[in-house]
Amino acid sequence: MDKIKEKLEKLRVESETHLAAAQKAEAEVKQLKDELAKRDTEVQNLNNKVTLLQEDLDRTEKRVEEVKLKKVEGDKEESLSESLQRKIKMLENQLEDKERSWREATDKARNTELQAEQFERKAKQLDGEKADLEKRLEDMTAKYNTVKAELESTLKGLEDL
Q1: What letter would DSSP give residue 84?
Q2: I want to staple 109 with a disulfide (CB 3.0 to 4.6 A). Which of 17, 46, 142, 143 is the partner?
Q3: Residues 12-47: pLDDT tens digits?
């Protein structure tokens, strides 16, 4: 009788432990999904920024070309030429800065996408573990109920004696 009670208690404790682990896994999955959504938003924002930088780069390149054409068509005045050269240099510097920013944003977007993929894999793994724990919990609950029914039957049999 005491052994059955001990076994039932052990099963109950094990069941509670598995339930706690399943709840913890669910919370971790939710956290990872939230983080994945955050990362997806970040990727989208970075992609938008890359697009804007590319457009800005195109406009800047066009302006550089226009300035270069004006220079080629050329005004003969020395001061105008120097002014245009300064503008070209300034635009080229801006272009370099924009290209650097674009490369950095692209790299960051790639890294974020890789992290998002890693989080997705982790979430899938945790979902699998959760399913396994839930199945194990169901099995333990069924065993618990079976042992409980046997105990009740045994107790009833003992009472009838």
Answers
A1: H
A2: 46
A3: 888 889 988 889 989 999 999 999 999 999 999 989
Q: Are 53 and 91 in contact (CB under 8 A)?
A: no
| Burial class for 66, CB neighbours closer than 10 Å (0-12, 13-18, 19+) | exposed
* Residue (of 40, 22, 38) closest to 126 by Cα position: 22
Q: Is residue 32 a contact partner of residue 126, using CB atoms and an 8 Å limit?
A: yes
CB under 8 Å to 83, separation ≥6 — which residues? none
- Using an 8 Å Cβ cutoff, are 116 and 40 in contact? yes
Q: What is the pLDDT of residues 51-101, one digit of tens each?
A: 998 998 899 899 888 887 776 675 556 676 787 788 999 999 999 999 999
Q: How many residues does the structure list for the chain?
A: 161
Q: Which residues of 71-107 are buried (b: 16+ CB within 10 A; e: fewer)?
A: eeeeeeeeeeeeebeeebeebeeebeebeeebeebbe
Which residues lie below 8 Å from residue 145, measured CB to CB, with a gap of 6+? none
CA distance 5 to 113: 53
Q: Which two tokens stand for residue 26?
A: 């669910």
